[in-house]
Amino acid sequence: MMKQSSMAEFLWGHRGRFSYLLIAALLLLFTLLGARELWTQEHRWADIVFGMFYRNDFLHPYLGKLRYYDKPLLSYWFIAAVAKLTGALTTWELRLPSALAGLLALWAVYRLGAKLRDRQLGLLAGWLLLTTFYFVFWARTSSADMLNLTGSVCAVAWYFEKRENAGFFAYFIFFTIVALTALCKGLVGMIVPSIAVLVDMCMQKSWKQHLRPPLFIALIPAMMIYLFPFWASSYFGGESYGQNGLYLVYRENILRYFQPFDHKGPIYTYFLYLPIYLLPWTLFFIPALFTLKSRWKTMSNSSRWIAWTLLLLFLFFTLSGSRRSYYILPIVPFAVLFTADWLLSDAANAVKRRLWSAGWIVTVFLLLFLTLDILQTGYYLVFGPDRFATALKEEAGKIKPWDSWRIVSLDAEAKLSFYLQLPPDYTAYGIKGDRKKQAAEALEKAWPIIKSKPENTIFITRKVYAPALQSILAGYRMVEVSYPFQATFLKEDDINAPVAFMPDNPLV
Prior knowledge:
Elements: H1 2-11, H2 18-30, H3 42-55, E1 62-63, E2 66-67, H4 74-86, H5 91-116, H6 119-130, H7 133-139, H8 145-162, H9 168-182, H10 188-204, H11 207-210, H12 213-235, H13 238-241, H14 245-258, H15 269-277, H16 282-290, H17 292-295, H18 301-319, H19 332-343, H20 350-383, H21 385-397, E3 406-410, H22 416-419, E4 427-429, H23 440-446, H24 449-452, E5 457-462, H25 466-472, E6 476-479, E7 498-503
Parallel strand pairs: 3-4, 3-5
Antiparallel strand pairs: 1-2, 5-7, 6-7
Membrane topology: Multi-pass membrane protein
InterPro entries: LipidA_mod_glycosyltrf_83 (IPR050297), RgtA/B/C-like (IPR038731)
Protein name: 4-amino-4-deoxy-L-arabinose transferase-like glycosyltransferase
């Protein structure tokens, strides 16, 4: 217990410093950030930003050859800005905006906790957030979701910093943060901070204090900031693009909320996923939730604000017709504050809980660092698709320069286009039916190009098709990645492993 007491004192007690939290966050969020291969939806951001550079058009997003304005532009622009500064577009550049947003979110939670109660709450909430698995996961993933979380909690933190003497500048910054957040993912970036602020205004009865001309005047330039990218994409080349960004905001946010056309999870979706998204701190969150009724009368107004905000945010997401697991992510900082506030309460056994939480923080930090930063990196250094891309380019370069080859995808994984740096208009074929049941005749019918065998063409595909294609592509040799003998058993049955068929004679 003495050791745990010292850890608690060091993490959030009198010896605690935000700089310690910052150093830990830099280690956990940035170590080998680009090592993991693209994960599912990351390819969407990779493809869209690569296409922006390829077309030299940053106002009209395309997913491959398809117009794709389903998300506003700002999350793509952040990645493009990083790529422009570094001169490259790799997985590191793709993820850097999310990792930086994760740092900013930790600072905002710390400031919000300190303002609500004291720096102890701010530091403890920061450590809990940093050691929440899905916070770290999304901070190391290229998407708009961590940007959305960060913008929401930053707006709320700014409101609490300035609510006592807010003027035009304070309102302008608040609305600008909200506008930029909405430009990353959608209107949910406006709703989350609005609910949190409205709860506080109701509790403080401060409507008259804020509903003054400076607030409405400050709203005007923030609205202009929000509308500018949509105006620009419509004014410059909008007629040829054919998609209206503001209509898609309505479709993806308002229409999806009330009349969902996809992602129709059951009403209990977030009852399952909020505890999952809080792991490992669900261990303390659930007891904090169950003791809420007995604690209510002795809770401070700030503690009640956290509880009300968490409840109303949960209801807002639950009442949406469209539900997916990660939509709940913006609630996580408020749930963490709720948990930290309970841990610091004066209830019986509170000291013991705090000591246990200190040990858990250190243990979970080390586990997350080992699994997400180190072990994943080692795995993908051996099995990652970048190894295949490097091997294919080397083999192709022995015959003729890589840029002079034509690449055709035969139902290959979409992320390979990023690793091979293929142009958005490269030729790609899909497949219908079970991949494991495709005979040579069926493949020839689905992919007529393998019968014509055009010159200077390399076919990339999946290992499952290799036996059938070897009988069709006479005069071609198969290129695949060889694995170290001690790790072969991990991949020997992977039917989706990438392979390529390359003619020994490029004129074949």
